[in-house]
Write a structure and sequence with these properties.
mainly alpha, Helix Hairpins, 2 domains, elongated
Length: about 550
């Protein structure tokens, strides 16, 4: 029985129904084979024995009719006309021919004719048939010859002897065939009774097997299930002292798995209840500490909110100063850019002035050369005037004046060349200075741009810091409110711990030595209420997870 209980329930049910199906199939196959046997026997009775008897009877009838026709010929042959004679002769021949034909069909159909012990009766029939056929022809010939007496002598003599032998062989085959038909019928009846009895036996066996199997299977399932139900009833009533029997736990089927799972469940529930009972007192104590801590946290949050407001005002002033610096830097940047452009234009103008002065110097050099040539021409004119004498005095005066003008022109040209050279030098120095000054001005413009960008970034940064401080102020205020709620929740947590102790006392453990009394819990709760008499208590609280990190905790800072 234990080996059966170790089988899976599905395997047991499958095996049980398999055996039932096998027995049912065996009974069905036996009944089917027996039915086929009965069918074959009935077919043999009808298709072989009855048909054989029918052909034997028809053959015997034809032989008898042929004999009657011969007797009629002998009785009325002299007085009958030719047509009637012909009709009787035809009846004799046809009936006698059908005797052999029908007996031949009997030989083909019947199983009796094929047996060796019946071969002598086959020979008897054929020998008698041949002799009767010969005697019949002799009788017919005598009748046609009007020798009735001779015909009657043969008919009542040799003819009747051979005729009876022929009919005797057919009668023997009829009796044997009838006997075999009776035997086949009796065998089929006996087999039918056996089928009925065996069917009843098989049905009874199946009913017995189903009944016994159902009882065993039901007991193997309902008994442990009832035990499990009783154990679950105890658990539902808070009794965790019960245990699973070793017999049920050692089973290898689903019941054993269920019992093992229930045993593990009872152990786990017992551990949980024990842990809850142990921790409920710690929760009440922790709620007292939590209340004091929440009060300190609320005070610190209020102080922090005041500090945050001061920092916020300072950051707003810093932000205003940075915005002013940024505006000044932008204006300085514009001035630097304008100065750079002006210096660049001055450099270009200096280069153009230097080019113009060089051109003027070249032109003045030409004028100086012209004055020098004019002076030479004036000297030549004076020489020629001296050579001319009186006639050349006026020309000499003119030449002298021209010479003076040439000298004055040369002096002026030299002075202009000197001034031009000085202007060129000064202009070149100015160009060099402008070229040196232009990069510095550009660098100054870039620095001013960087200062402006940095000021803008500082302005944005201070704005973000100011927003963060505003958020921090809001969070600080929320923390203060949360601290007050935390103080209220700590009181409710103590009340919940008391209720938890009352609820968990419903369970009774195996190794429980003592229980936490309601009086001790009430005293502890009264102590909590006394310490927090001035704190408002809400009707509902919420679960607090001290190990959980929230987004507001990450944004909290101390100052």
């Amino acid at each position: 029985m234990n080996s059966i209980n170790n089988l899976k329930i599905g395997v047991r049910l499958t095996g049980f129904f398999f055996i039932v199906v096998v027995l049912t199939a065996a009974g069905f196959i036996y009944t089917l084979n027996a039915t086929q046997t009965i069918k074959k026997q009935i077919d043999a009775i009808y298709k072989v024995h009855l048909v054989s008897i029918d052909y034997l009877l028809q053959s015997d009838r034809d032989a008898y009719q042929s004999s009657i026709s011969i007797s009629q010929l002998m009785s009325n042959g002299i007085n009958e006309n030719a047509d009637k004679m012909e009709k009787h002769l035809k009846a004799v021949n046809e009936n006698f021919a059908q005797v052999k034909e029908r007996f031949g069909v009997f030989e083909k159909v019947s199983t009796v004719s094929k047996k060796s012990e019946n071969a002598k009766y086959i020979s008897q029939f054929h020998d008698s048939y041949d002799k009767v056929e010969s005697l019949t022809q002799q009788i017919v010939d005598l009748i046609e010859g009007k020798n009735i007496e001779g015909a009657q002598e043969i008919y009542f003599g040799l003819y009747e002897v051979q005729f009876e032998l022929m009919r005797g062989a057919m009668d023997i085959f009829t009796e044997i065939t009838q006997k075999e038909a009776d035997e086949a019928y009796n065998a089929s009846q006996k087999l039918s009774r056996n089928i009925f009895v065996n069917a009843i036996i098989v049905v009874l066996l199946i009913i017995l097997l189903i009944s016994v199997g159902a009882i065993l299977l039901t007991r193997s399932i309902t008994v442990p299930v009832s035990s499990a139900v009783n154990l679950l009833d105890k658990i539902s009533n808070g009794d965790l002292a019960g245990s699973v029997s070793a017999e049920l736990a050692d089973r290898k089927d689903e019941i054993g798995q269920l019992m093992n799972s229930m045993s593990v469940m009872i152990g786990n529930i017992s551990n949980i209840v024990q842990t809850i009972k142990s921790n409920s007192g710690q929760i009440a104590s922790a709620s007292l500490q939590l209340n004091g801590t929440s009060q300190q946290l609320s005070q610190g949050a209020n102080e922090q909110a005041a500090s945050v407001e001061e920092v916020s005002a300072t950051m707003e002033q810093i932000s205003s100063n940075i915005a002013q610096n940024s505006d000044n830097a932008r204006q300085t940047e514009k001035i630097s850019e304008a100065s750079a452009k002006g210096i660049e234009k001055i450099g270009i103008a200096a280069k153009e002035s230097l080019t113009s002065i060089d051109t003027i110097s070249q032109k003045i050099t030409i004028i100086n050369d012209i004055a020098f040539q004019t002076n030479i021409l004036a000297l030549n004119a004076a020489v020629e005037a001296a050579r001319a004498g009186e006639h050349g005095k006026g020309f000499a005066v003119v030449a002298a004046e021209v010479r003076k003008l040439a000298e004055r022109s040369k002096i002026a040209a030299d002075e202009i060349i000197s001034l031009s050279q000085r202007s060129v030098d000064v202009t070149r120095e100015a160009g060099v200075l402008m070229e040196k000054l232009l990069p510095e001005v550009s660098k100054t413009a870039r620095l001013v741009q960087e200062i402006s960008a940095a000021s803008l970034e500082q302005s944005n940064g201070t704005g973000q810091v100011n927003n963060a401080i505003q958020q921090l102020n809001t969070i600080t205020q929320q923390n203060a409110a949360s601290s007050e709620e935390l103080a209220s929740s700590s009181e409710e947590l103590a009340s919940m711990a008391e209720n938890l102790l009352n609820i968990i006392s419903f369970f009774k453990l195996r190794d429980e030595k003592q229980q936490i009394t309601k009086k001790k819990t009430t005293t502890k709760t009264a102590t909590v209420n006394k310490q927090n008499a001035n704190t408002p208590i809400k009707s509902k609280g919420y679960m607090i997870n001290f190990n959980e990190n929230s987004a507001s905790d990450d944004q909290f800072h101390r100052y």
